[in-house]
Structures are given as structure tokens and as C-alpha cells.
Design a protein that fits this description.
Oligomer: single chain
Strand order of the largest sheet: 8-9-1-12
Largest sheet: 4 strands, mixed
Order of helices and strands: HHHHHHHHHHHHHEEEEHEEEEHHEEEE
Number of helices: 16
CATH architecture of the domain at 242-255 and 318-340 and 405-474: Sandwich
Shape: elongated
């Protein structure tokens, strides 16, 4: 019995590290730009490919192939990830096991914004493949996914209900395919999201978006709309033709947050009628549990007194670079923030806190009641259950950890023939790193798309050794 208990404890302790810490080697390979090795590491990781982690495996493989400019292969993985989310069915065995262990035994369910970002990558991949119709479909799906997800939340709806950058991608895709009227509508919709009732995660409307909206209104001859938005933006539009096309630089800066865990204490107190209340005065939260006429269940829950509940929290990986501009043909073009994935991640996790804390309390309550019952029957087994439950009470710290921290963009008019573009990225010390692009200006191609991801980031925590490696990849 004693040896078995030791084995159980050792197994549980081995799972106490966060998901990020357990996959540190993969993270180091990504941070070092060793993308082929990172892909091989994923491909040979049996645990990552198990059903409960399969979605994360697919999203990471999609990312790694996108970074290696294998856009069709990247979409193959993202397509499978998309289907896995669409066809997701609860494994009731795993759900039941999670109630007496911890949520990491369940198949991973993407955070809402992670589901959206699958379609972001697919849209950008299709832009690189010059399949503009497919890119439009994927950009549209970014907001369709959000609409469907938020329809599920009758109460405590998410702040993240529309994606402004999705509309920008739609507009760019429409422009690339020559559909200027549709592009105008997409840009107008993007402006409306940025200046919505609560704003868009404190991001101002990019000047590039304002210019794009004014330009498409001018080209279409929408005089009233042009004058309206000139007043709205306090801008006067001067049309500048771009006969040899433009380059659109999409700068994916840094790395998104990683999950850790935080614990909250709740006190079990009698409620009115057939309820037991779990409350945390500091947070101002109360969760009632219906026990009906079951006096024993009521007494068991009240006997818990104080219970500790583990819940995931994000740790930001601050960006190494703070701003960037593109130098081309004697001019400089500032890259503007259009999407703050880090801020969206924190807000969406906060939005689902209330929705899911009750489930976490129920899970812990069932574990503790079983522990009490077992102790009443056998003191040694009860002690073992107490230790096991204490160690296994942990949050699900899995998340898609190869997403960028934030996304910036700008447009550069091209001259005929060869154009040398230099992307300059500055850090807090005002030192600069750069990468270059060669683009051929040609009247037959309206837009050239140049995504680039600078992986450099600052540590999220003392154990975040991967962040100390400073290299870039596109």
C-alpha cells in the first residue's frame, strides 16, 4: 500500500510543471529559429499527438510550417485543426475523470481567440499563395467563429465579439482581387470595430486603415462617404496612384502569453433552503450549489470549510522590439499596431472566469467529499486521498504558445522593377535589428504580401529560458 502511494505521488508530482515548462525544449528550438528541428521535435513527440493534445500539435505544426514558408502544408495542418474544433464532441469519460483529477486529462479545447487565429494564419497563407478568394473566406470565418462562440454565452458574454484585423485582411484580399467596392465595405467595418462602444483593446484606428477607407471611397466615386470620413478622421485625402502595385508588410511581433496557474480559497457556508454557498469575500464571489433534501450531502459539503481552487492565468512575454518602420525608395513607412493578441488573451480568460469557476468548485467539492467518505471507511486510504487530491488540484495550463504577441502592418508603394525594402525593428534601448525584402514592382500585380515574425521576446518568468535566445525568422 505504501509503495503504491509513493508511485501515485511521484506520478502526480511529475505533472505539476506547467505545460510551457514541460515543452521547454520545443520552445527553445522555436526561439532559436531552429524550425526544422522544432518540427521534428513535434513529429516525434508521442504525448503531443495524443487525443487530449492533438489540437495543440496541429496548431503548432501549422505555425512551424507557416514560418518555414510552407504555406500549403501549413494550411493542411490548420485545416485538420479546424475540423477537430468543428467536430469536437465531449468525451464523457474524460469529463468524469477530470471531475476527480484535473482538467488536463480532457482533450484540449481552444480558447476563443485561438480558434480565430487558425483562420488568420490560413488567410495569410492564401495571400502568399495568391489565392485571394480563399483568403477572403478565411478572413470572413474569423468573425463567423466569434459570432458562433458568443451565441453560446447567454450570460457573461465576451468582450471579444468582433475582430477588427479580420476586416482589414478581408479588405486587402478584396483589393488584391480587384473588388474595390467590397474592400471599401470591409475597411468601413474595421473602422466601426475599432471605434466600438468599448473600443478595440485600446488600439486606435490605424492611420493606414483610414487612408485605405478614404482611397477606396475616392476610387469608387463615393463623394459623400469621402467627405464624411475626412471630417471623422480630420484628414484631407490626396490621391496618389500606385501603377506598379504596393507591398503590404505584416509584422508579427514577439510571442503571445503562456499559461500558469493561480489559486483561490473559498469558504463553504450554509445557504437558504436547499443550497450550500461557496464564497470568496476578497473577490466578492459566491457560488450556490443545490443539494435538495440530501442532508448528508449538505453536511459533507459544509464539512469542507475552506477549499482551494486552481485556475489558469496568463503570463505575458513582453516584446523585445517596441516599434518598427520600413525604409523603401528614400521614404520611411511606420508599422502600426492592428491586433493585440496578448490583450485579447487576457481579456478572454477573464471573461470565462465566472462561467467556469463554478465547474472548478464542483470538481473540487466532489474530490473532497470522496476523500472524507474514504477516510471514514479507512484512515490510511483517506490520508492517501488527501495527499493525492492536494497534489492533483491544478489548472489546465495548456495553450497555443507560438502565437505572436501583436500584429502590425503598413503599405508601401512600389516603383517599376526591383524594390529593396528594409524592415527596421527597434527595442527599448533604441538599437535596431533589420531584415530585407526584394519586391518586383509590376503593373499586373496590385498587392505583394510580406508577413514577417520576429520571435524575440523578454522572459515571462524566471524559468523562461527560451526567451534569452534572440533570433528572428520569417
Amino acid at each position: 500500500m505504501r509503495n503504491s502511494l509513493y508511485i501515485v505521488i511521484l506520478l502526480l508530482l511529475s505533472g505539476c510543471a506547467s505545460y510551457y515548462q514541460r515543452n521547454m525544449e520545443f520552445q527553445k528550438l522555436v526561439a532559436n529559429g531552429d524550425l526544422e528541428k522544432a518540427e521534428a521535435k513535434l513529429s516525434h513527440n508521442k504525448r503531443m499527438q495524443k487525443d487530449r493534445n492533438r489540437l495543440l500539435f496541429l496548431m503548432n505544426m501549422g505555425f512551424v510550417n507557416h514560418m518555414q514558408q510552407e504555406y500549403a502544408v501549413s494550411n493542411m495542418y490548420f485545416n485538420e485543426a479546424d475540423l477537430l474544433i468543428e467536430d469536437y464532441k465531449k468525451s464523457y469519460g474524460a469529463e468524469a475523470l477530470a471531475l476527480v483529477s484535473n482538467p488536463e486529462v480532457k482533450p484540449y479545447r481552444a480558447e476563443d481567440f485561438e480558434s480565430v487565429m487558425i483562420h488568420y494564419y490560413k488567410s495569410v497563407n492564401f495571400l502568399k499563395l495568391a489565392d485571394y478568394e480563399a483568403s477572403i473566406v478565411e478572413a470572413k470565418r474569423m468573425n463567423l467563429v466569434l459570432n458562433r462562440l458568443n451565441d453560446k454565452y447567454k450570460d457573461h458574454k465576451n468582450r471579444y465579439q468582433a475582430d477588427a484585423f479580420a476586416h482589414i485582411l478581408m479588405g486587402l484580399s478584396y483589393e488584391a482581387s480587384g473588388k474595390i467596392n467590397d474592400a471599401f465595405i470591409a475597411y468601413r467595418n474595421a473602422v466601426e470595430v475599432y471605434r466600438g462602444e468599448h473600443g478595440y483593446f485600446d488600439i486606435p484606428i490605424p492611420n493606414q486603415l483610414k487612408t485605405d477607407l478614404l482611397r477606396t471611397a475616392y476610387i469608387l466615386g463615393f463623394g459623400n462617404e469621402l467627405q464624411f470620413y475626412e471630417r471623422e478622421f480630420d484628414m484631407t485625402y490626396q490621391h496618389q496612384p500606385t501603377p506598379f502595385g504596393e507591398a503590404v508588410v505584416i509584422w508579427q511581433n514577439g510571442m503571445g502569453p503562456v499559461k500558469d496557474e493561480v489559486s483561490f480559497n473559498f469558504i463553504a457556508v450554509p445557504g437558504s433552503g436547499s443550497y450550500v454557498i461557496f464564497e470568496n469575500e476578497q473577490l466578492g464571489l459566491t457560488f450556490p450549489f443545490y443539494v435538495g433534501d440530501d442532508k448528508q450531502k449538505r453536511d459533507d459539503l459544509l464539512a469542507l470549510h475552506v477549499v482551494r481552487v486552481a485556475f489558469p492565468k496568463y503570463l505575458e512575454r513582453p516584446t523585445y522590439f517596441t516599434n518598427a518602420f520600413v525604409a523603401a525608395n528614400g521614404k520611411e513607412y511606420t508599422l502600426e499596431l492592428a491586433q493585440d493578441i496578448n490583450a485579447i488573451a487576457f481579456k478572454t480568460l477573464n471573461d470565462r472566469f465566472i462561467r467556469e469557476m463554478g465547474i472548478s468548485l464542483l470538481r473540487l467539492g466532489l474530490k473532497k467529499v470522496a476523500e472524507i467518505k474514504l477516510g471514514q471507511e479507512n484512515a490510511a486510504l483517506g490520508a492517501a486521498a488527501t495527499i493525492t487530491n492536494a497534489i492533483s488540484e491544478k489548472a489546465d495550463t495548456r495553450n497555443w504558445q507560438t502565437l505572436p504577441h501583436s500584429i502590425y502592418y503598413t503599405r508601401i508603394p512600389l516603383k517599376e522593377g526591383s524594390n529593396a525594402l528594409k524592415l527596421n525593428m527597434k527595442n527599448k534601448r533604441n538599437t535596431t535589428d533589420y531584415t530585407t525584402f526584394e519586391v518586383e514592382g509590376d503593373e499586373r500585380v496590385r498587392l505583394h504580401f510580406l508577413p514577417y515574425h520576429s520571435i524575440e521576446h523578454l522572459p515571462a518568468a524566471p524559468w523562461d529560458n527560451a526567451a534569452s535566445i534572440m533570433t528572428s525568422s520569417n
